[in-house]
Design brief:
By secondary structure, the protein is of the alpha+beta class. The strands form 2 sheets. Strands 2-3-1-6 form a 4-stranded antiparallel β-sheet.
Length: 124
């Protein structure tokens, strides 16, 4: 097999995987077509992947569809890059407020940051 995977961006949000495959079949044999959807809502994220049967079909698809409009949206079509490995998930790591990173200010806490104007002047 000498399939070539294409990234297709700026898709109409109403487009289905079947419609994407049918559209790209104009350029050659489509092995698979997938519109990527949000896991929680199930709605399209506006991009997908099309796998063409040969590099020649893939090149023809890029020439036919990159920069062209589909339902008033200008498509971006190029060769998909391989998925880069992600760092393993570590519980408790990354993002959020931790320890001394908490935002300060506001309110009338005793001994706490606070807002200059609410306290009636500078702190000495």
């Amino acid at each position: 097999m000498n399939n070539q995977k294409l990234y297709v961006g700026n898709l109409p949000y109403t487009l289905t995987s079947d419609q994407l495959g049918t559209h790209f079949a104009q350029a050659g044999q489509v092995t698979s077509a997938t519109v990527i959807a949000d896991r929680q809502s199930g709605r399209s994220k506006g991009f997908g992947f099309v796998e063409m049967a040969s590099p020649e079909d893939a090149q023809k698809a890029i020439e036919m569809f990159h920069g062209k409009e589909l339902d008033d949206r200008t498509l971006v079509v190029n060769v998909a890059r391989p998925l880069e490995p992600r760092a393993p998930f570590t519980p408790g790591g990354g993002g959020g407020f931790r320890g001394g990173d908490r935002p300060r200010g506001g309110g009338f806490r005793q001994g706490g940051g606070g807002d200059f104007h609410r306290r009636g002047g500078p702190r000495y």
